[in-house]
Design a protein that fits this description.
238 residues, alpha+beta, oxygen-dependent coproporphyrinogen oxidase, eight-stranded antiparallel sheet, 7 helices, 8 strands, binds biliverdine IX alpha
């Protein structure tokens, strides 16, 4: 269902950046389970380049029961650009949830004006993918922008509207990346490092997917996947 999205992201990345593989801890690149009713496979890819310190994407495929495409692009520490966050989920083709955002590092007005305001016209263009859904696991005011796309959709719009929106958001992200000037002040860079680290902690602490990973691949694997790969700068609660 979301494979064309993964392919598009991959080809865009390889076209635009000099990517180098970024190692994924042993055993976490791929996992298959036939626990339960529907066999599931999860597979991840990770890259880096001078501008983007971590680009990860994951595809979870449990056939008709579930398809998930999840990705985060982490800019290098000398760029205070937002993360590119992608979370597309489909459960039994009945519940299709799409979330796409430029996830802000900071919420102050200058930051919003520089990095979030440019999203407004796309947000308006895709107003059918803006449904004012409430977030249960996350705080919409932290690490989410006001111009995120967040919608429950019918499967037939996934390859059409959702794909169009995906391409447009990606293009804007690359444009913003290309226009960005690296920070030089060590204090500014430290602020970015701290905010990116907090994002990992915040996300790992709240990730609504832990139960899903755990039910298919076991609790130990789920914990490792969360804290050693997805959000490796987060520490597990003791
Ligand atoms: C919701 N994301 C979810 C849910 C799951 C995942 C299972 C709950 C769906 C439901 O309502 O039943 C799945 N999260 C994953 C997976 C991974 C993950 C598979 O990290 C990793 C492989 N989530 C993100 C990113 C964004 C994001 C980058 O990981 C930003 C675009 C958003 N996911 C997001 C939001 C919700 C969600 C906003 C709704 C959560 C809520 O209601 O609070």
């Amino acid at each position: 269902m979301y494979k064309p999205f993964l392919e598009h992201l991959r080809s865009e990345l390889f076209e635009r950046f000099e990517l180098e593989a970024r190692p994924i801890p042993a055993g976490l690149e791929q996992c298959t389970s036939d626990r339960g009713r529907s066999p599931a496979t999860i597979e991840s890819w990770c890259y880096q380049c001078p501008e983007l310190r971590k680009i990860r994407y994951t595809y979870m495929d449990a056939g008709d029961a579930m398809q998930v495409f999840n990705s985060v692009v982490y800019p290098s520490h000398q760029y205070d650009l937002p993360f590119l966050g992608i979370d597309f989920l489909s459960f039994g083709k009945v519940k299709n949830l799409v979330v796409l955002d430029f996830q802000p590092l900071f919420q102050d007005e200058a930051y919003q004006a520089k990095y979030i305001q440019p999203l407004q016209s796309l947000h308006e263009k895709y107003d059918d993918l803006v449904q004012g859904l409430e977030m249960k696991s996350y705080d919409a005011n932290q690490y989410f922008s006001k111009y995120l796309l967040f919608a429950k959709v019918e499967p037939d719009v996934v390859p059409t509207r959702v794909f169009e929106a995906f391409k447009d958001y990606l293009n804007l992200y690359w444009e913003m990346m290309a226009a960005a000037t690296p920070l030089t002040n060590p204090e500014d860079i430290q602020r970015v490092i701290a905010a990116q680290k907090e994002y990992d902690q915040y996300s790992a602490d709240r990730d609504p997917a832990h139960g899903l990973f755990s039910s298919h691949f076991g609790n130990e694997w789920a914990n490792r996947f969360l804290f050693e790969f997805l959000f490796e700068d987060a520490k597990p609660a003791v």
